[in-house]
């Protein structure tokens, strides 16, 4: 009987922890010269957590991508310029697969048939004036072969995709 009560108490405690995990509809991340609105992440192609609470995983993912993008954008943009983006779709490299109880978490399998993709609109502002704007739909089908294999940073494929876009599209047009 005590075990039954402990199980019920454990379930109630864990469900209340999940209930406090709030979901932000269109989260906005901002770092330095970059501001990103993540429009309706629940409809993104693949931002699936393999072992964390989904909203925490999304928050961490969006913050990491914004931080990395800011690092690259700060090298390209002039001090008075700012990059604003509205991301409408994100597909992280790889695919999440269930382990069917072999481990407590699912696994993200990264293979060349699951490339990173991101769709967004952007504008580069100088003060209040828009000096460049556009829509992008980026993907890198060669992502497994175009990045340093020793790089073990999280979201390395997505970060490289965005850094490459900045260097090839934004930098020459500024």
Chart the SSEs and their pairings.
Elements lengths: L1 H18 L8 E4 L2 E5 L15 H23 L4 E11 L3 E3 L9 E3 L7 E10 L2 E11 L16 H18 L1
Parallel strand pairs: 2-3
Antiparallel strand pairs: 1-2, 3-6, 4-5, 6-7
Short description:
With 174 residues, the chain is α+β, with helices and mostly antiparallel strands. It has helices spanning 2-19, 54-76, 156-173, and strands at residues 28-31, 34-38, 81-91, 95-97, 107-109, 117-126, 129-139. Strand 2 (34-38), helix 2 (54-76) and strand 3 form a beta-alpha-beta unit.
The strands making up the biggest β-sheet line up spatially as 1-2-3-6-7
Radius of gyration (Å): 19 Å
Helix content: 25-40%
Residue share in β-strands: 25-35%
Number of domains: 1
Number of contiguous helices: 3
The helix-and-strand class reads alpha+beta
pLDDT average, as an integer?
A: 84
What is the terminal separation in angstroms?
71 Å
Shape: globular
- Annotation, overall tally of beta strands: 7
Poorly predicted ranges? 5-20
Main sheet summary: 5 strands, mixed
The succession of helices and strands, N to C, reads: HEEHEEEEEH
Task: Report what the structure shows.
This is DUF3016 domain-containing protein. Keywords: Signal. InterPro entries: DUF3016 (IPR021557). It comes from Shewanella halifaxensis (strain HAW-EB4). It is a single chain. The protein is an alpha+beta fold. It has one domain. The chain is 34% helix and 27% strand. The protein has 3 helices and 7 strands, in the order H-E-E-H-E-E-E-E-E-H. The protein has a 5-stranded mixed β-sheet with strand order 1-2-3-6-7. A two-stranded antiparallel sheet has the order 4-5. About 9% of the residues have low confidence.
């Amino acid at each position: 009987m005590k075990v039954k009560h402990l199980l019920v108490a454990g379930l109630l405690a864990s469900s209340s922890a999940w209930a406090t995990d709030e979901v932000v509809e269109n989260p906005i991340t901002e770092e330095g010269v970059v501001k990103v609105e993540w429009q309706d992440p629940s409809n993104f192609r693949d931002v699936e957590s393999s072992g964390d609470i989904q909203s925490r995983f999304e928050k961490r993912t969006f913050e990491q991508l914004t931080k990395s993008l800011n690092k690259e954008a700060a090298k390209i943009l002039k001090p008075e310029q700012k990059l604003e983006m509205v991301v409408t779709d994100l597909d992280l490299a790889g695919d999440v697969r269930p382990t069917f109880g072999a481990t407590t978490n699912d696994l993200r399998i990264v293979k060349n048939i699951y490339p990173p993709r991101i769709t967004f609109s952007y504008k580069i502002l100088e003060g209040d004036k828009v000096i460049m704007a556009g829509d992008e739909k980026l993907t890198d089908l060669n992502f497994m072969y175009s990045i340093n294999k020793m790089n073990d940073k999280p979201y390395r494929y997505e970060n490289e995709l965005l850094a490459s876009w900045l260097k090839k599209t934004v930098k020459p047009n500024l």
